[in-house]
Amino acid sequence: MRRTLLRTGLAALITAGILALSHATHAATRGGKMIYARYADSLFLDPVLNDANTDIWVLTNLYDTLLAPTKDGLGVQPGLATKWDTAADGKALTLTLRPGVKFADGSPLTAGDVKWSLDRARDPKAGAWSGSLASIAGIEASDGVVKIALEHPDPTIIPALATFNAAILPQKLFEAAPGETPEDKARAFAEHPVGSGPFVLATWQRGVSMTLRRNPHYWKPADDGKPLPYLDELEFPIIPDDATRLLKLKAGEIDGTEFVPYARVKELQADPALRMELWPSTRVTYLTMFAGATYKDGKPNPMANPKVRQALNYAVNKDAVIGITTLGLGKPMRSFMSATTPLFAGQDLYKYDPAKARALLAEAGFPNGFETSVLALSGNADEANNLAIIQQMWGQVGVKLRIDLVDNATRTARYRAEDFAMRTSLWTNDISDPSQVTSYAAYYPNIHSQHSQWRDERVDALFVKSQQETDPAARAAQYKEIQDRYCAAAPIVFLYETPYPVAFRKQAQGFVQIPLGNNLFEAAFVDK
Amino acid sequence: MSRAGLVAARLLQIVPTFLAIGAVVFVLARLLPGDPVSAMLGDRATEEAVTRLRAQLGLDQPLWTQFLLFAGRMLHGDFGTSIALRVPVTAVIAERLPATLVLTALATVLAVGLAVPLAFVAATQAGRWPDTLIRAAFQVGLSSPIFYVGLLLLTVFAAGLRWFPVGGYGDGVAGHLYHLLLPALTLALSFSAVIMRNLRAAILEVLQAEFVDFARSKGLSRRVVLFRHVLRNALLSTVTLVGLQVGTLLGGAVITESVFAVPGVGRLMVDSIFARDYPVIQALTLVLAVIVSLAFLVTDLVQMWLDPRVAR
Asked: What is the rounded (10 degree) CA torsion for B216, B222, B224, B227?
């Protein structure tokens, strides 16, 4: 019932979003420029070799994929391919390419470009993302049809073809780029990238500002049948300071901005010149616990005992954390994946119960608690808030928490070395499928369950099976069991999910941020 | 030593300084926990991906091999390619340096312009209300955190009164100066407090000197005594102070550039340290070291002009 309610609620929210969007498109203004301030610049606009959300979230505006994630993030819709069929044995895919698509330079997008781009994206030697296309055995492309042979049936291949790294690039332009090695060519190409997306890069002053220009050859029409995008120009100035971005928005120097601090959301909602948008996201915030028997220095680890991990979860009042850090904008985590992830099967987890926490600690042999530490990012207000509250709550059950403030590279290095007791963590999905988050969080062989060393062989087996399971109901059941087992074993301290907070001036409309984070500007416009 | 001799000697001194700093920063950057790969690939990277990228970047080589490569390239003026930005380091620094230089120069001019006359008033009115008022005001300036002053100025003069843009760098010389005035003022406020206190004390000290009594007894006008004899002598220590503070000012630019979204090297340095972007950290430290060394040289030259005895 709860799930149905949630689904209904989610569906209503999404429908409202889509309605708002389609309503907006009726009154859309063509031409003009939108200025959308970002907190950090992109680093590398190559779909295959990039590593960061600052790249991934804007790539969709430059490049197209064969399929595209739906706006609710739960499925896929046609992209460069209009039609796709899976063979009866699940070991082949046939995609029909949209006719007449051109790259931003006016050259035609061919089946050859598709084969070349996908072959490059699935090359294990190129880029961190190739794993999503690892089941591909071979690709044949001719006359607008792309045939993909698979090593085995793969339920994730459809969403994988809708993910940024599977974007289609112009082979000729890429190969003509200066440089000796493919990496050099990628670097040169990504300085002046050309794709078939709604925009094309016009100017880029690194760390300062990026300007995209309308792609006159873009294939997608608006509701009125005329081509998208509406905007002639889209500028992304880079303003790292939250307060400065909001001052600029209020002064009307920019049309919109991302990552509004939660503490400022109510104030912006009350401003009649602005519109606060809270987009459903796949973003979850939690603490990763090291669950190995001993720490790196050989000392025994209390958190190796699941009862201790459960106790620490029972000792956190998630509602209080959400109230203080996110000012009520978050929702409690109900699985290790967000409720916006396909095959999410969460439930209410670890209702605040300090008495139970104390009892569990006593059962585990820690009646007087213990001392532990957490690695957190220095200068991050949200993490500081979360940990200050948790420190107090855990103190009440006898657990003393030391907060070690470090920078991101340090935290990552110690995390990878599995040299930590706890760390602050944040996750967003890149693909409309639960496999990515599961492979990192719960499936041990990939990265030791987020380097926690927590291992459940049943979960590993279920995951392997689910990666080839073509029966949707069976796969859903596998994911239900994985999530149930993970949540019971609690290798993390479950905290909250939060939406993406973006703000616009009233006249700037039509922006969409999907739960995966992708910023879509194809239907954005600014009223005069 | 002649002026030309001093300049030549100082320029020669920069060379060993440069080499020493190069070696130190090479080691220091690598002593930071983590490496460019952990910063680039983030939390999700698999061991395979990490190993591959480390090899690609040459980080799997022994440290001394990396150092020799770095030193060899540096002697040819090649600072390599930024790991995070994937473009030549010299290009990034050349793009970002002007904003910081203009910002610090403007801040220095504003700070001196603000501090010198007020220090003069405070010293000549020592103990009376103008002195108390000036010192109190500068005390506030000195004790306010830069980011706070910056936000305050932005809120009042940019977002509120709309006299200035809310951050950015603008286009063209006039545009740059217009955009940089508030951030420069932010930097100048705390800097001017340091200069004011120092200069006020120096003026008071010089006023006690015998040559001042002598000048007065010669019948020189108060104006001539104060400007030609007192101020000129008091300024000596202030000039040294301004020169020595250039490094501090560049450090303050890091925060100011973030608050005001100025695309300078301060922000670049912070980003590069977070990204463990060794080539940028190394090159930028060297460039900043050269700027500070040159500032010291200019300080010496100005001192020689103010007090010819320095040259002897």
From this structure: 110
Tell me, yes or no, whether B9 lies in a domain.
no
Most A CBs within 10 A among B155, B166, B182, B276, hence the mutation to make, goes to B166
pTM: 0.88
Which contiguous run of DSSP H or E holds residue B257?
helix B232-259
Query: For residue B175, what are the domain limits?
Result: 89-311
Tell me the helix, strand and coil percentages in chain A, rounded to 5.
Answer: 35, 20, 40
Record: contact A409-B274, CB cut-off 8 A: yes
Distance CA A344, CA A334 (A): 9
Please check whether residue B36 lies inside any domain of the structure.
no
CB contact under 8 A, B271 and A207: yes
Find, among B126, B307, B301, the residue nearest to B232 by Cα: B307
Q: Which chain B residues have a beta carbon less than 8 Å from that of A190?
A: 86
Q: Report the gap between the CA of B54 and the closest CA in chain A (Å).
A: 13
State mean pLDDT over A153-181: 95
Which chain A residues contact residue B168 at CB under 8 A? Answer: 237, 253
Q: What is the pLDDT of residues A74-113, one digit of tens each?
A: 899 999 999 999 999 999 999 999 999 999 999 999 999 9
Put simply, whether A381 touches B (Cβ < 8 Å) is no
CATH number, domain with residue B178: 1.10.3720.10
> What's the number of domains chain B is made of?
1
Partner B, chain A 432-451, Cβ-Cβ below 8 Å: 440, 446-447, 450
Q: How far apart are CA B238 and CA B232, in angstroms?
A: 10
Establish if B66 belongs to a structural domain: no
Q: Which residue of A has its CA nearest to B88?
A: A187
Q: Are A236 and A257 in contact (CB under 8 A)?
A: no
What's the pLDDT at A3?
43
CB-CB under 8 Å, B41 with A51: yes
Out of B34, B151, B167, the one facing A248 most closely (by C-beta) is B167
3-state SS assignment for residue A38: strand
Taking the C-alpha atoms of residue A106 and residue A120, their distance in angstroms, rounded to an integer, is 23
Radius of gyration of chain B measured on its C-alpha atoms = 24
Q: Report the length, in residues, of chain B.
A: 312
In B, which residues are within 8 Å of A406 by CB distance?
33
Q: pLDDT digits over A285-334, tens only?
A: 999 999 999 999 999 999 999 999 999 999 999 999 999 999 999 999 99
- pLDDT one-digit tens code per residue, B124-175: 888 899 999 998 988 887 888 888 888 889 889 988 888 999 888 888 889 9
Torsion of CA A87, A90, A92, A94, to 10 degrees: 50
Write the DSSP string, B107-172.
HHHHHHHHHHHHHHHHHHTTTSHHHHHHHHHHHHHHHS-HHHHHHHHIIIIIIIT-SS-SS---SH
Task: Provide the angle, in degrees to the nearest 10, between the axes of the packed helices A381-395 and A318-325.
Answer: 150
Decide if A81 contacts A95 (C-beta within 8 A). yes
Give the span between the Cα atoms of A418 and B252, in whole angstroms. Answer: 36
User: Is B165 close to A253, i.e. CB distance below 8 A?
Assistant: yes
A38 with A54: CB under 8 angstroms? yes
Asked whether the predicted pLDDT for residue A9 surpasses 70, the reply is: no
- Distance of alpha carbon B84 from the chain centroid: 25
**For residue A268, what pLDDT band results from cuts at 50, 70 and 90?**
very high
Residue A204: pLDDT above 90? yes
* pLDDT at position A15: 43
* B120: in domain: yes
Q: Does B6 touch chain A (CB under 8 A)?
A: no
Chain mean pLDDT for chain B = 87
Whether the CB of A97 is below 8 Å from some CB of chain B: the reply is no
Q: Burial letters for A133-152: b for 16+ Cβ neighbours within 10 Å, e otherwise? A: bebbeebebeebebbbebee
The ipTM (two decimal places) reads: 0.82
